[in-house]
Amino acid sequence: MKVVILAGGRGSRLSEETTLRPKPLVEIGDKPILWHIMSIYAHFGFDEFIVCAGYKGYQIKEYFANLVLHHSDITVDLGENTIRYHQSKRPNWKVSIVDTGLDTLTGGRLKRIAPFLDKGETFLMTYGDGVADIDVRAEVAFHRSHGLKATMCAIAPPGRFGTVEIDEGRVSAFVEKPTANRQRINGGFFVLEPSVLDLIDGDGTSFEGAPLARLTAEGQLAAYRHDGFWQPMDTLRERDQLEELWRTGRAPWKLWS
Questions:
Q1: Number of domains making up the chain
Q2: Which pLDDT tens digit goes with each residue over 152-168?
Q3: What residues of the chain score a pLDDT lower than 70?
Q4: What is the pTM of this model?
Q5: DSSP letters along the chain, please?
Q6: Domain carrying residue 24
Q7: Domain at 185, CATH number
Q8: Residue 4 in contact with residue 110, Cβ under 8 Å?
């Protein structure tokens, strides 16, 4: 089962970082967030990836083409024109990076990578800027159990502001970013049947628009409830929050050893 990662957007809300590189290559620790997302999937045995590139996509190609170089100590023998790698950690992944266009919308990017999917095979899909401690295998099992065309990870986002609890006119507690009401939002981490691609007209189709609306109307979109950690990286503040969790060894999405 292949994993498709949408990684072609401009990331304009994180312009402090994305003027120089695509958002999926913005680092948490010393690794791009794209690497963190792929590591989540690989932990559950899903290690064949299709990356939908667009904005500065050549940098994503260069990163994976030189992955061992990026994450190893090296000795360069200029006389013999050789490179010797030390402390090399090479993940056993297969990664296809596909140029899906600069201004293509999310649905169009999925449509463009159809030739890279195996015919009739269920596939996984998520966004290249969010991490979670989701049990991907459990979500796949849930998807197979209901027999619908699509499963979406549905999360209850934390509230934007902290709240106070009041007891008889006195503040009794502060609650930092409480869970919002019981309404849930699209958290990515989809499981999709290939027939979903037939609902996408072309480059100008947003997957979150007509395709998801039609799946919903037809009763073909299931919600996998995830109540654990989930965090997108849309702003510099969110990047810094993820960085702090990683730096202090408290990153909930680090499921791998």
A1: 1
A2: 999 987 766 555 566 66
A3: 159-182
A4: 0.90
A5: --EEEEE-S--GGGHHHHTTS-GGG-EETTEEHHHHHHHHHHHTT--EEEEEE-TTHHHHHHHHHTHHHHTSEEEEETTTTEEEEES------EEEEEE--SS--HHHHHHHTGGGSPTT--EEEEETTEEE---HHHHHHHHHHH--SEEEEEE-PBPSS-EEEEETTEEEEEESS-B--S--EE---EEE-GGGGGG--STT--TTTHHHHHHHHTT-EEEEEE-S-EEE--SHHHHHHHHHHHHTT--TT----
A6: 3-247
A7: 3.90.550.10
A8: yes
pLDDT in tens, 115-153: 999 999 999 999 999 999 999 999 999 999 999 999 999
**222 within some domain:** yes
140 inside domain: yes
Residue 193 resides in a domain: yes
Cβ burial 135-151 (10 Å sphere, 16+ → b, else e): bbeebbebbeeeeebbb
Q: Is residue 177 part of a domain?
A: yes
Torsion, Cα of 195, 196, 197, 202 (10° steps): 140
Residue for token pair 């902290």: 162
